[in-house]
Amino acid sequence: MLIWSSTLQLLHAYSPNRCQMFPAFQQILRNWLDMGQPNIPPANAPQQRTRIYKLIPFPTIDEFRAAAENWNEVVAGKLQYAFGGTFVALHRGGQVEARNIEIILQQGGLQQTSQIKTDNPQFLGITEHNDHIIVVREEGVYSFGVAIRCYELGTEGFPYRFIPPYESPHRTAEDGTLEPTFYEQGLQVQIHHGSIPILRSKYLLYQRLFRFNRDYFATQNWEQKHLRRDIHDIRVFLHCAAFDQEKPFSDDIVPQLTQVVRIWKKFAENNFVDTTAEDVDAWNRLGVPLSPFHDVSAIHGQN
């Protein structure tokens, strides 16, 4: 092979006119010259390290906040989103058991996140059990992360638009005086100096009630567990919405929403979570007309 290569190289070097006269012969020469040559990748080709993604089943609040920071770092400027779910209830000081982070994306955002995940394997990955995670720490080949659940606007009871805070430079004429659907809040970690977008508590409250109304008669055990965990989310979002002085629910949905709240109240009481006078007051602040005489649980002496 070395003799043939040397001969062909000499023929190519000293007979340029003949090669130009016979293009097919020129291609044959090139093919022969390439035979047996090692396939050496470019010197600057990136080396992909081995990663095995592992789910953290019960993350700490610090791991949740690290995950939120990493997500924000990866998608900032590429995708509009807001955090929601039990993570927010925990972030606001609620006594809840959070296991994942819910992220609400702009419409069409699910498709974009697939490419973002592919481009950022150091932050986003999928475990062997198909858990989508945000990586928060690495140990050798293992990348440990917090589970995420992504939803698009207008699905699962979430609002249809992202409306920026009143003071935001991103508000447009179309937003007008509409109530914001999200706010910005810091992560309360030393290394993070910015803020993250969080869906306002009234909309998170509505979403949990929407899920309760949809799944109340579900027979699957995992669905009932979700509803029982949602009890605590609902109470946190209720009082956060009242504390933040968010506007009441619109009049057109209040009648049906009130019926759902009364059914949910009985469900919560059956799971040993009572309705207090403070709860009733918070519902009233949001336009849901519960009675301090009839809707406070009997254990509190107001029934």
Description:
The structure is a single chain. The chain is of the alpha/beta class. It has two domains: 49-199, no CATH class; 201-303, no CATH class. The protein contains ten helices and eight strands. The protein has helices spanning 2-14, 16-21, 23-34, 61-75, 86-91, 109-119, 201-215, 221-243, 254-270, 277-285, and strands spanning 52-55, 81-84, 100-105, 124-126, 132-139, 142-152, 182-185, 196-199. The strands form two sheets. Strands 1, 2, 3, 4, 5 and 6 form a six-stranded mixed β-sheet that branches. Strands 7-8 form a two-stranded antiparallel ribbon. 29% of the residues are buried.
Main structural class: alpha/beta
**C-alpha geometry:** globular
Mean pLDDT: 86
Distance between the termini: 98 Å
Please give the number of β-strands. 8
User: Which ranges are low-confidence, i.e. pLDDT below 50, for 5 or more consecutive residues?
Assistant: 1-22
Q: What share of residues are in beta strands?
A: 5-15%
How many structural domains can be distinguished in the coordinates? 2
The portion of residues assigned to helices is 40-55%
Q: Summarize the helix and strand pattern as letters.
A: HHHEHEHEHEEEEEHHHH
Number of helices: 10
* Biggest sheet layout: 6 strands, mixed
TL;DR?
The chain is α/β, with parallel strands linked by helices. It has helices spanning 2-14, 16-21, 23-34, 61-75, 86-91, 109-119, 201-215, 221-243, 254-270, 277-285, and strands spanning 52-55, 81-84, 100-105, 124-126, 132-139, 142-152, 182-185, 196-199.
Offer a few descriptive terms.
single chain; 303 residues; alpha/beta; 2 domains; 6-stranded mixed beta sheet; two-stranded antiparallel sheet; 8 strands; 15% strand; globular
